[in-house]
Design brief:
Blueprint (H helix, E strand, L loop, with lengths): L2 H11 L14 E6 L6 H8 L2 H4 L3 E6 L3 H10 L4 E5 L1 H8 L7 E6 L2 E2 L1 E6 H7 L5 E2 L2 E2 L9 H9 L5 E4 L5 H12 L6 E3 L2 E6 L4 E4 L5 H6 L5 E5 L2 H8 L2 E6 H4 L6 E6 H6 L1 H23 L2 H8 L9 H8 L2 E5 L2 E4 L4 E2 L10 H13 L9 H11 L2 H13 L33 H7 L9 E3 L2 E3 L1
Parallel strand pairs: 1-2, 1-3, 9-12, 9-13
Antiparallel strand pairs: 3-15, 4-15, 5-18, 6-13, 6-14, 7-8, 10-11, 16-17, 19-20
Helix pairs in contact: 1-18, 2-13, 5-17, 13-18, 14-15, 16-17, 16-19
Length: 451
């Protein structure tokens, strides 16, 4: 047990019932977020008084993009933030910004979708199986492949958007494309465009700008979180073709990130933050999403997501609209607590690392041990467990609400769009089992894949 864990444990065991976390080192905090539905745990923890219950005064500040947010946390301007799951992982290995970041809390599962323009959808639709006059879901990228080939034959680039190079959106978009036989392109140390050898050109667009960029024709489709897929439907400019839950069922999405330095200097503050966020996640999912209507009203406020409440509600209240009038049940589109959503599993971090290696962001092969050690340097289930145990001791949660994994790894799963099995304890075997992308000792040199 580390010194920090021992300190947290000794305090957690002494917590009186219904009391704020004692010994908080810093009680006034500024936390960052991007205007997305999945920032909800932060908004709810503030608006429902969960931060205050822990003795914390929290200011939430919207950030213009993921790079600005990351820089704010690293510099200390922000004490912590709603982050892409890949951001603390990439920072830890020095891909992009180099920094020691950690996460004690996973913010949600699922929550993203891939949307294409109306024109692209019209070209895809003849390739999509139909039943009762409606498309059969999930729609595979096989239906998009002939469209991309037609663009290539005409000499027209097929441009797609995602929110950040180390985002789950980037990896989900690439996974979906590759599962349909479409090469999304590679990265190399000399070319970080991610477009080497690609059948498509994938680039970065900030989430709130996705619909306008699609409408302008700059991109033909995008992968993003809500409410920006449903916004395309509402504006009549695009069609979501698949949600990430159908690419990888109950996939991890955002995390709450802090610097390792902050956690070391403020262990009780970190514990208090984690407790408040767990309570917010519980509130969001309790009673079969009974609180979601209230959550939508909160998120629609200008200081949070600031989108139309009806658009946010489309995905937050158990349904998802693909085309106007084609609204389907989607009770797990946004998951904040059930399925142990908030537990920071090492295997979730390892999956992100496998995709970084698959597409060349990790340029050289690494051992399975390296993947395990890297995941454990960033994800902190020890802090999460102590926060949950403190909530149980205070009567704010019950033991049966949690399913603490003994070793921090989820069970292997094959619930992916292509049916390929993933075992977080065997990352290299998993990478080698994927048809498109780097594997084994392969690297990218001068725009070419070499062994």
């Amino acid at each position: 047990m580390t010194r920090l864990s021992a300190l947290l444990l000794s305090t957690a065991l002494c917590l009186p019932a219904h009391a704020q976390t004692p010994g908080i080192e810093k009680d006034e905090l500024t936390l960052g977020f991007i205007k997305l539905t999945d920032m909800a745990p932060l908004a709810i923890a503030k608006e429902k008084g969960f931060f205050e219950d822990e003795g914390l005064s929290v200011t939430l500040v919207a950030q213009s993009n993921w790079k600005v947010l990351l820089d704010g946390v690293v510099s200390g301007e922000l004490d912590g933030a709603h982050m892409l799951a890949g951001q603390p992982i990439a920072a830890s290995i020095g891909y992009g910004t180099k920094a020691a970041l950690v996460t004690p809390f996973s913010m949600d599962l699922n929550g993203n979708a891939i949307t294409v323009s109306n024109a692209v959808w019209d070209e895809m639709k003849p390739n999509v199986p139909m039943a009762d006059g409606k498309p059969v879901h999930p729609i595979k990228a096989d239906a998009l492949k002939p469209v991309i080939e037609a663009y290539a034959d005409a000499g027209t680039p097929f441009n797609l958007g995602m929110v950040f190079p180390v985002s789950t959106h980037n990896y989900e978009l690439r996974y979906w494309l590759a599962a349909g036989g479409i090469n999304p392109g590679l990265y190399s140390p000399d070319d970080v465009s991610g477009q080497i050898g690609g059948d498509v050109l994938i680039s970065v667009t900030p989430p709130p700008q996705m619909p306008a960029t699609l409408e302008a024709g700059t991109i033909l489709g995008y992968a993003v979180g809500e409410p920006w897929n449903q916004a395309a439907v509402a504006k009549g400019i695009g069609v979501p073709v698949i949600t990430d839950a159908d690419i990888w069922k109950n996939n991890p999405e955002k995390v709450f990130g802090l610097t390792a330095e902050f956690v070391q200097a403020n262990p009780q503050t970190t514990l208090a933050l984690t407790k408040a966020l767990i309570r917010a996640a519980m509130w969001l999912d309790e009673g079969d999403n009974a609180n979601r209507a209230e959550a939508v009203e909160i998120l629609a406020r200008s200081e949070y997501v600031g989108a139309d409440a009806a658009v946010i509600a489309n995905s937050m209240t158990g349904t998802f609209e693909f085309e106007p009038g084609d609204t389907r049940p989607a009770p797990d589109f946004n998951v904040f607590f059930r399925y142990n959503a908030t537990f920071p599993y090492y295997s979730d971090a390892v999956w992100t690392l496998t995709q970084m290696r698959r597409w060349g962001q990790i340029a050289e092969p690494q051992t399975d041990v390296w993947y395990d050690e890297t995941a454990k340097s960033v994800y902190r289930p020890d802090i999460y467990r102590l926060a949950a145990e403190a909530l149980i001791a205070e009567g704010k949660a019950s033991a049966e609400m949690f399913d603490f994994d003994a070793d921090g790894y989820r069970e292997p799963t094959a619930e992916f769009i292509d049916g390929v099995a993933y075992d977080g304890k065997a990352p290299n075997a998993y990478i080698d089992s994927l048809a498109i992308g780097l594997k084994g000792d392969q690297t990218v040199v001068g725009g070419e894949v070499t062994n």
